[in-house]
Amino acid sequence: MIAFVSGRVAAAGPDGAVIDVHGVGLSVQCTPATLAGLRVGDPAHVPTSLVVREDSLTLFGFADDDERAVFELLQTASGIGPRLALAMLAVHTPDALRRAVAAEDVAALTKVPGIGKKGAQRIVLELKDRLGGPVGGGDDVRAPARGEAWRDQVQMGLVNLGWSAKDADAAVDAVAADLDGGETPPVAALLKAALKKLSK
């Protein structure tokens, strides 16, 4: 397994980045919050998980080792593949997922596009003893968004999660209208706010 990649960020797109590792460009799929911490041209150390399929080798990248561990644990639940596990981490931090599963908070889990009530109940049942309790102090330890760059990141995140570009734009505009002009919250928090707007 490829445990991490380390090198310069060669490119960053809506759902992933390319890390230049000694002249080899490795494509890494990431959550919007993880992408927010990567800047083209900057050095990066990205914990990864390699998912092997008959027709593809896909490298998924994470903000830290804890996020990667949760990603891999989520896939041990029936019906959860890598894409859905990544979507869960796009909506919730690892600790938020641990809290939701431990508290049997089905409503929190169904905020993830692609997870219905029965799916959320199954996740709770299968992962309650495996995910463990929260390990961090706060709800969110994501890197804050810089300036207005968060708008593109949140919009791209919503599109990657299955919303139309039109709906994503409307949700981003609604979230922007709610900001009071103070310090911009982390991208993950803004993404959650946009998802709440879309679920109304």
From TrEMBL:
Keyword Acyltransferase attributed: no
Any one GO molecular-function label of the UniProt entry: four-way junction DNA binding
Principal place of residence: cytoplasm
DNA damage as UniProt keyword: yes
Example GO BP: DNA repair
Subcellular location: Cytoplasm
SUPFAM superfamilies according to UniProt: DNA helicase RuvA subunit, C-terminal domain, Nucleic acid-binding proteins, RuvA domain 2-like
Residue numbers spanned by region Domain III: 146-200
Gene Ontology cellular-component terms listed: cytoplasm; Holliday junction helicase complex; Holliday junction resolvase complex
Keyword field: ATP-binding, Cytoplasm, DNA damage, DNA recombination, DNA repair, DNA-binding, Helicase, Hydrolase, Nucleotide-binding
Helix-hairpin-helix DNA-binding motif class domain location: 72-91, 107-126
NCBIfam families xref list: ruvA
Reported function: The RuvA-RuvB-RuvC complex processes Holliday junction (HJ) DNA during genetic recombination and DNA repair, while the RuvA-RuvB complex plays an important role in the rescue of blocked DNA replication forks via replication fork reversal (RFR). RuvA specifically binds to HJ cruciform DNA, conferring on it an open structure. The RuvB hexamer acts as an ATP-dependent pump, pulling dsDNA into and through the RuvAB complex. HJ branch migration allows RuvC to scan DNA until it finds its consensus sequence, where it cleaves and resolves the cruciform DNA.
Subunit record text: Homotetramer. Forms an RuvA(8)-RuvB(12)-Holliday junction (HJ) complex. HJ DNA is sandwiched between 2 RuvA tetramers; dsDNA enters through RuvA and exits via RuvB. An RuvB hexamer assembles on each DNA strand where it exits the tetramer. Each RuvB hexamer is contacted by two RuvA subunits (via domain III) on 2 adjacent RuvB subunits; this complex drives branch migration. In the full resolvosome a probable DNA-RuvA(4)-RuvB(12)-RuvC(2) complex forms which resolves the HJ.
Domain notes: Has three domains with a flexible linker between the domains II and III and assumes an 'L' shape. Domain III is highly mobile and contacts RuvB.
Similarity section: Belongs to the RuvA family.
Name of the protein: Holliday junction branch migration complex subunit RuvA
Annotated organism of origin: Actinomadura meyerae
Recorded name of the encoding gene: ruvA
